[in-house]
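Weekly sync notes, structure subgroup
Attendees: PM, AL, DS (notes)

Item 1: joint prediction request from the bench team. They want all three components modeled as one assembly rather than separately. Inputs as received:
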Amino acid sequence: MAGKGFFIDTTLCTACRGCQVACKNWNRNGTIPTKNTGSHQNPPDLDGNTFKLVRFSEVETDGKLAWYFFADQCRHCLVPPCKDTIEGYVDDAVIQDEATGAVVFLEKSKEAPHEEVTSSCPYDIPRHRENGPMVKCTMCIDRVSNGLKPACVKVCPTGAMNFGELDEMIALANERLAKLKPKYPKAQLLDADQVRVIYLVVDDPKKYHKNAVASLNPGIDRKTALRRMARPAKGLIRTFVGV
Amino acid sequence: MTNHWIDFANSDCILIMGSNPAENHPISFRWIMKAKDKGGVVIHVDPRYTRTSTKADIYAPLRSGTDIPFLGAMIKYIIENNKYFNDYVVNYTNASFIVGEKYDFKDGLFSGFNAEKRAYDASTWAFEMDEKGVPKKDPTLQHPRCVFQLLKKHYSRYDLDTVSTITGTPKEDMLKVFEAYSTTGARDKAGTILYAMGWTQHTVGVQNIRAMTIIQLLLGNMGIPGGGVNAMRGESNVQGSTDQGLLYHILPGYLPTPSASLAKLEDYNKKFTPVTKEPLSANWWQNRPKYVVSFLKAMFGDAAKPENEFGYGWLPKLEDGKSYSWLDLFDAMYRKELKGFFSWGMNPACSGANSNKTRAAMANLEWLVVVNLFDNETASFWKGPGMQPKQIKTEVFFLPCCAFLEKEGSISNSGRWTQWRYKAQEPLGQSLPDGDIIYELFNEIRALYKKDKAGKFPDPILNLKWDYAEGKHFNPHLVAKAINGYWTKDVTIKDKTYKKGELVSAFALLQDDGSTSSGNWLYCQSYNQDGNNMARRDKTDETGLGLYPKWSWAWPVNRRIIYNRASLDLTGKPWNPKRPVLEFVGDVADGKYTSIKWKGDVPDGPWYPLKNPDGTAREDGKLPFIMKVDGIASIFGPGLKDGPFPEHYEPIECPVEKNPLSPQLTNPVVPEYTTEKDVIKTCDPRFPFVGTTYRVTEHWQTGVLTRWLPWLIEAEPQVFVEMSEELAKLRGFANGEKVIVESPRGSLEAVAIVTKRFRPFKVLGQEVHQVGLPWHFGWVWPPEGGESANLLTPSTGDPNTRIPESKAFMVNVRKKG
Amino acid sequence: MKLTRRDFLKISGAATAGLALSGMGLDLSTVEAYSWQLRTKDAKETTTICCYCSVGCGIICHTDKKTGQVIYTEGDADHPINGGSLCAKGASSYQIAQNEKRMTKVLYRAPNSSKWEAKPWDWALKEIAKRVKKTRDATFTLKNQKGQVVNRCDGIASVGSAAMDNEECWIYQAMLRALGIVYIEHQARI
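Output from the run, pasted for the record:
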């Protein structure tokens, strides 16, 4: 598969949240007023100013405590349902960059029905700005197109965040999986053949985050979601329609 | 740190205890994870399961304030299971030294205790000397009064069952840690300890570190790559500001501050220049007079002359035996002994223990100068909670300093790397670099003393060398060169002539006759004839161990691992040939070394090894621990105020009435403060839970900078109190509920984080709960951020360092209103 | 119809940066990738070291050559310790450089006053110098109770600062000691 990809090894993540801040820094994103609600996860969810969020999850399995960190972001699906949804309503509001495979929302996405776009995403990623466009991770396409790594990857101290050619990322992911499997029998890659952002987890993915794997959304069951993902999106065969 | 950040990757076993580097030194994990990837074992011992614990192979919980029992049990385990590195222990430590007959330890007290003075007479802990004045030794370690046997006896009481009932650590967890860590006693294995304020901020702070040092010496882990005793310091330049003597007890370069009984420079040198009769000891501090005189020359320039003792008389003298530390300073301020106060780049209203005392004390001042980037609880104390501005007469000056990226200069990290930074933009608004503010302020003060001939003791003010500006602005290069030092006259040494005005190349050349100046001998070489070595950016790494000797500069003399000659056997060959940081490679003839040549890191002294390749001893060799008077490392440490071996004492406020290890519950020589604000309650049912303070990744110290940064305050917006589910149930708290945390000294509201990451401890058959809070918040900003956890902490501390006991105290948590 | 790079630049304007491309009403999937531009392209790079913990991570500041203002900060990829990485605090250095809450004026609070007043630097330094001299002269101890010479100013104390550069620390200790101040502390104990 051509284009770029991420490999996110959650076993190396220390939740320093460098990525969460670096994303805001590069994208000049602001903040929302937050409160401590009994968790270190903040802001509580992705939002119009937060494209990358470290999710904290405390779980106990067989009396053993684990504290999982999940650096959530857009998966840049190979066949992005969000694009399909947006384009069902408005033209020229989303692109899937040919060279990288990055899925990028444009200004006109504000005309798309926000909730429907969000619910069409198997990972519950797209958000919108107040009276503004739909937003999410852009794969730092401006950085990547100029030979740099995305801000969240560059900032990562431990190698949890990786970026490169998708093929190389898949190879790296499989290599890490093979290394971890003996110690962690539940180790797995998440939806690796569907997305450009591949996570490695060592436990039931739901214990990390309810949307860690492609999952149910209102009105869409998992099968439908996957079917939609697998269907060639009409955006891919669209041609230029003029200025 | 004896080692440095990148060196963590060279370790086979990393013990993280008294610290939480994943949260407070996050980039350290870049190297810790590399060690782990190579098969190294990571251990975290902490009261709370933290972001660090998530990456540990072994996590063991431990009640705050009980590190010595844990480490004491490890010492016992290492000795009884023969895990120690015998050759290292015999040759490089004082394990073989015979302690005098007056030494004793009974009922939790060492010999020489004076109950009235609450102090020890340490002369009873002295070694037995031979006729030449060298300590007597038994290299077989069998003599009943040799250090090794005394150590064994001392910790024989620290059995797993007893210790487990004190620390609350399950026995099997403790054993797992001991087994894993003691494998580094093998000569080809390295173990390191990473600690921070979790060890120092206790009434047994120094002894916590001593206990671990003993372990590192038993296992032969000092001086080797992947080993060492590594304090992860909390601020970007707290290493540097310590090196530069911004503390009451030291001048730059760890020269003790003079006291009243040392009237003359000669008295000072006599007291602080150690003498040894051990022929193999380098005893580096014998050079102290050179460093003192060179410092005085840097301070007073041409005015420092032999006839005026180089201006020694101009230095202020402390009262003998009196401490002027943080706790003492605010105690004096509270008792109205102080009138003026500079709070420079700090926020004591939130940062020191017992903040209510600190805040009340500031109202006793006539004037206060605050220098900072943002408003803070110190500058605005007069309008803080409970304050009546109209009744507070303190004048306050707020001087805005600029940010680090708006000026040029050097800072020293924990690994002693001194790195130069550059200016990226002009200071914001009217803010100024600290250097400019200090420089101009002193010019104003000096001008007043020049004008007023009746000013008190104007000599040091008028004679201070103060030519560090270029044009209108303070120039850090001029100071950096002064810190390095100059030749003050033409001098010829061994056929080489050094010209007046040249920079001194390194501290081995500093003189005690006034012919050299050096603001800080430890930094001599940082800025010399080769230029500004701190600014170097060459990434050559010949050893492959991550020393990067041409990147920036490290004190002393660019040595990257201190005591590195201890990584070698007696013939100068690495204990572990697979990971050599240093190696002696001099020529050999007939089994004897005939020339001096070293490979690798800068050796701890240039001398020959102790033995030739054929095993014969050399008289010109030197022992590796060159800063120690005897040339070896101290397992038995007679220099401290609270005993030569670490002994367990409970925190001053503790949840137990008994110490199963001795009848002595708490450290018998802790400092006591006696104002009405110094309330201490132990085993008081109103304060039944252990409290501790800590930090999170997203904030720094009192939050004086980070609370004002939107991205960070969004991520950690409010003060919280973490507690177990069991305690929350006991008190009827829901997760996320605002609750009251109170100690005998203060209280605050905090959001309850109810978590499985805190668990009750089983201590002496009882369930003991612990809670913890970050100390990053304060009332000034943000509006709903909450208050400082230091409102709760007690003003008492370690008898040696007087660091406050912020890491273990007693609190209550209860529902609001 | 395929859009060439030349056509595209003609339409969008050569200076278009990053996501400013959005809203053009184009299907940009056919546009060649290198038309995305870095917002730091023309900035001046300066190296510094992070101001928070003591790891000593390298940071690069990007400064707009026209305004002289820092527009972006990121980890220094050449730095051997952090290799371009940073934690949340280090990654937020930009908000130290550009922050409307920073104090940019000297403030003074008079005795018993309820408010701050803005003052010029010159005034403040002269006034502080007067306070220092007055207090020092009033509290200076030439000899202690035992009659030993101590030459000490007992009425003034200082805390700070590990937040200063070495060179600033050194001249600060020089000033304090010349004044005879002995209550000298910093962050080592907190």
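Discussion: Chain A touches chain B at residues 12, 14-18, 20-21, 24-25, 30-40, 42-43, 58, 60, 65-69, 157-159 (CB under 8 Å).
Action: AL to compare against the crosslinking data before next sync.
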